[in-house]
Amino acid sequence: MGSVIRKAVKMPQSIASVSMLKLKGLSVMGACGYSDIKTGRMYLQDHVLLVVLEGVYIVRYGEQKYTVRKNEMLLLHKGIAVEYEKYGEEDSRHVLDYMMFFLKDELLHEFMKISSFPSSEPVSPAPTAVHSVNERLLSYVASLKPYFEKPEAIQDELIKLKMLELLFDILDADKGLLNQILQLRQQRPTSIVEVVEKNLLNPVSLQDLAYLSGRSLSTFKREFRKIYNEPAIQWIRNRRLEKAKELLTHSGISITEVCYATGFENVSHFSKVWKKKYGIPPSAMRQRNVAGVSIAEG
């Protein structure tokens, strides 16, 4: 994927250049075209079901790597920053065609109310894996294609029905995958330390961290302070700045890349909080480091 560090785009809120079907709590993204290799980073704020119709979509996070090819699908959990590589293959004229379904708890609860699917859940979650897309699911995806031509003309109720239809079709195709999806509907409290350490360098807000931990924002802030003896926003900012200082000192990547690699979403804001902590701009710190002059924290 190369050594360039890119800003992690928040999904699905930050999507601007692809076709979308949206209503409250539900989003479907569709992308189709001719594509050479494209790479990037994205932070998943919702659970995502990725369905590839043509081409290849490679996802990496941590030490995990998944390659999703034609007529395959992959379920990705929310709260992770992933690197991706996607492209159309030569034997299909470099066509890249895929859809992403963003799944929220409200939809899963509604499905459980109207379906006869057993409500019992396995003790341990099923591992993440690539699954095959059967003919019924392919027909379902094809039925969505016309909706992307004029998404503003599609009624919200129809999108909701189509999303419920997706879950029924997955039930027919792969009960194990559906069970894995339904496990996502219960947001259980998670260790604050675990959530913070896992997402420290991701572009997440305190509201995001509270949500991922299964707590309200006020409860998250209160419990965080008990653990770390410091306000959450201050502690997280300082840890990110320390990591940024390490990168500026020991790597040759640009200041913009350092900003994105340490969870900051805006270079000007990064420079402002950096100067407040260290007394000089990041660029001056790098120049001093090149000249062999050390910098002390302010």
UniProtKB/TrEMBL annotation:
<feature type="domain" description="HTH araC/xylS-type">
    <location>
        <begin position="190"/>
        <end position="288"/>
    </location>
</feature>
<dbReference type="InterPro" id="IPR037923">
    <property type="entry name" value="HTH-like"/>
</dbReference>
<keyword id="KW-0805">Transcription regulation</keyword>
<dbReference type="Pfam" id="PF12833">
    <property type="entry name" value="HTH_18"/>
</dbReference>
<dbReference type="InterPro" id="IPR020449">
    <property type="entry name" value="Tscrpt_reg_AraC-type_HTH"/>
</dbReference>
<protein>
    <submittedName>
        <fullName>AraC family transcriptional regulator</fullName>
    </submittedName>
</protein>
<dbReference type="InterPro" id="IPR009057">
    <property type="entry name" value="Homeodomain-like_sf"/>
</dbReference>
<dbReference type="GO" id="GO:0043565">
    <property type="term" value="F:sequence-specific DNA binding"/>
</dbReference>
<dbReference type="GO" id="GO:0003700">
    <property type="term" value="F:DNA-binding transcription factor activity"/>
</dbReference>
<dbReference type="InterPro" id="IPR054015">
    <property type="entry name" value="ExsA-like_N"/>
</dbReference>
<dbReference type="InterPro" id="IPR018060">
    <property type="entry name" value="HTH_AraC"/>
</dbReference>
<keyword id="KW-0804">Transcription</keyword>
<dbReference type="Pfam" id="PF22200">
    <property type="entry name" value="ExsA_N"/>
</dbReference>
<keyword id="KW-0238">DNA-binding</keyword>
